[in-house]
Predict the structure.
Amino acid sequence: MTTTQISVVHDLGALAHRLSHPAGARCVCEPPQVLADRSDGTVVRSGAIVAKAHAVDIDREALAARIALAAAPQLTGILLPPLTGPGQSLTVPGHPDPSGHSTPAPRPVTLWPLGAPVDPTDPDAAPWAEAAVLLARLHRTEPPFRLPPMRGPAKAARAVARMSAALSGDPAALPVLAGWRALPAWARGEAPAPAQRAGFLCHGDLHLGQLVRHPAPDGPWLLIDVDDAGAGDPAWDLGRPAAWYAAGLLPPEDWSAFLDAYRSAGGPAVPADGDPWPELDVPARALTVQTAALALVKCAVEQRDPDELEQLMIESCARIATLPPELAADHAS
C-alpha cells in the first residue's frame, strides 16, 4: 500500500470511528477495517459506519444525484440509503504534474450504515432470486428526478482502455479487442442507448458483491454502490449473470432462479416469457469483454497467466467476435 493509500485509509477510518462513537464514549471496538481499496474508491469500516472515498476524477454533480437517489423515499427497500451526502471531503495527494510536484486533490466521501454482505464461501446460499427481485423493483421505479446516464457502457470502455494500455502490442489482448469491436456503438459507450431502452432506472454494476443485509446481520437484502446508477437499458443489469451463465460459470439452476424471479416480479428488461436472449445478448457480450479485459490487466500487474475462470472469459471474447453482426443491429433497432 502506498503512502497516499495509507493516508486515505487512516483518514477514512478516523472519520467513521468518530461518527460511530459519541464523544466521551468508551471504545472497545476493533481498529478500522479496509473493505475495498481500488482506483475507483476506498472503503473503510469502523463499528457500524462505512466511509467511502470516491475517485478523484469522479463527476461530482452526477455523484450527488446518485446519492440523492439512494436516499429517495421511492427507493426505500431497494437501495441502501446513505447516512450523509457527498459534501464532506478528504484531501489526498494528486497526480504529479510535469515538474514532478504533487498537488492536493479533494476526494468526495460518503457515509453508509454497515450491512452484512453475501458470504463468498457459501455459493449455495447466494441470493440470486432476491437480487433479481430487487432489480425488477428498481427497473419498475419511475426515476424521481433527472439522472445521469447509467455508467455500464462507460465502465466497459474504461476496462478495455486499461487493458490496451497495460498490454500494448501483446497478442493476448487480441481476442478481447475483437470481441469489443463486434459490439454496437452504444454498448461501447460511444452513442446513446436505443431510445426505447434508455429511460429505465438502472444499477449499472450488478453482481452479488452489491448486496447487503441491513440491518446486519439478518435484515432484508438491499442493493449498494450507486456510483454507476442512472437512466439506461435495464438489460445491462442482467448482463453479468447472463454472461456468466453463457460462459459456464453460473450453474443453470442459479440462472433459472434469477431469471424466473425477475420475470415474476415484473421486470421490464426481458419479455415475461419466451427467449430472453434478444434483449440480453449485447449486454452479456459487453460484460464478458469487460471481465476479460480486467482479468488481463490483473494478470499483467501480478505477472502471471490467466487462471481457468479468467481464461474462460477470454475465450468467450473470441467466440463473441465471430457472432453475426446483425445480432447487434437487431438489438439496437
